[in-house]
């Protein structure tokens, strides 16, 4: 089971109730995905290497920084929360930020947006990559023009970005999901995973750790029968849930480590004969999952504070642009109300541990 932590609760308290209610969409236009194709990633550009520059932690924050958030898709509620928090954070350091992106989460859908943002001369592009390699070439072109690249939520290939803001340790997320489901189903039975897209970096990393966790002796009576993909589309995730339950009549539990997938799965199960018989857990937001927790469809699920993820990504990008950090391991910077943060191996900054939501605490959160 995921350890219950107070980290998220205290973070939300410091954020304030008003900030937790600011969930408006901030999307801008761009070119369509029909005109773009995926290109292989080129070799890293030495001109964009963090090792070629020297950090000045005492450098003042640059004024008028222009940032752009490029989520997996703009109609994803979770991504909207993250991006809007980053946009609001930019106002704290007198910067300007916006959100642009595709309406679908296909591998090549983000490429045209990267190209457009590069032409517009933004100081930094923040991206939740749909495909780590498909976006690499365009991101390298942006870096060659001096644009800083910060991946968040779902990483791009490390040679194509300066930093990755990880919501939690990938290993901890993956293993903790298995531990939680095991507790809920009594450690035995057939289970399935309902993921987002087949190429999503974060999903695949988590699933790798889930599979490894399942090889431990304590899970010998649990069997993973299927990994299904809902493509972060509500209706497809709903249909995939239906298909899993029909194809595997002995299914005991489902893990859906995607906010779109877990809410769609909960919606299907809540109105079906499987309610109370099949356990569902995963990663979701309290506002999405509240009704399903209260009606008994879902007992427990996990996440982190997506507002803090966007906030941290925004400040990290600003620190990069201002020269306070270069992305090298061991460098530190101040991330507003989140305090000092340290860059880890491969340019990774971890927000914090996952948090488990249930009927006893879900009404304490509003996002």
Task: Indicate the topology.
Elements lengths: L6 H9 L1 H4 L6 E2 L37 E5 L6 H16 L3 E5 L10 H10 L3 E4 L8 H9 L3 E5 L10 E4 L3 H16 L3 E7 L5 H14 L7 E8 L4 H14 L3 E6 L2 H12 L8 E4 L3 H9 L6 E3 L2 H17 L9 E3 L5 E3 L5 E3 L4 E3 L10
Parallel strand pairs: 1-3, 2-3, 2-4, 4-5, 5-6, 6-14, 7-8, 7-9, 9-10
Antiparallel strand pairs: 11-15, 12-13
Helix pairs in contact: 3-11, 4-5, 6-7, 8-9
Key descriptive features of the protein:
367 residues, alpha/beta, Rossmann fold, 4-stranded parallel β-sheet, 15 strands, 35% helix, 18% strand
Overview of this protein structure:
The protein has eleven helices and 15 strands. By secondary structure, the protein is of the alpha/beta class. The chain has two domains: 209 residues, 3-Layer(aba) Sandwich (Rossmann fold), CATH 3.40.50.2300; 134 residues, Rossmann fold. Strands 1-3-2-4-5-6-14 form a seven-stranded parallel β-sheet, with helices on both faces. Strands 8-7-9-10 form a four-stranded parallel β-sheet, with helices on both faces. Helix 4 packs parallel to helix 5 and helix 6 packs across helix 7. The longest helix is centred in the C-terminal third of the chain and has 17 residues. The N terminus is likely disordered.
Second-tier CATH architecture of the largest domain: 3-Layer(aba) Sandwich
How are the strands of the largest sheet arranged? 1-3-2-4-5-6-14
Structural class: alpha/beta
CATH topology term of the largest domain: Rossmann fold
In DSSP terms (H or I, runs of 4 or more residues), the helix count works out at 11
The rough form would be described as elongated
CATH superfamily placement of the largest domain: Response regulator
What number of domains?
Answer: 2
What low-confidence regions span 5 or more consecutive residues with pLDDT below 50?
Answer: 1-51
The profile of the biggest β sheet is: 7 strands, parallel
Rounded average pLDDT: 88
- Assigned CATH class of the largest domain: Alpha Beta
The radius of gyration is: 20 Å
The count of strands amounts to 15
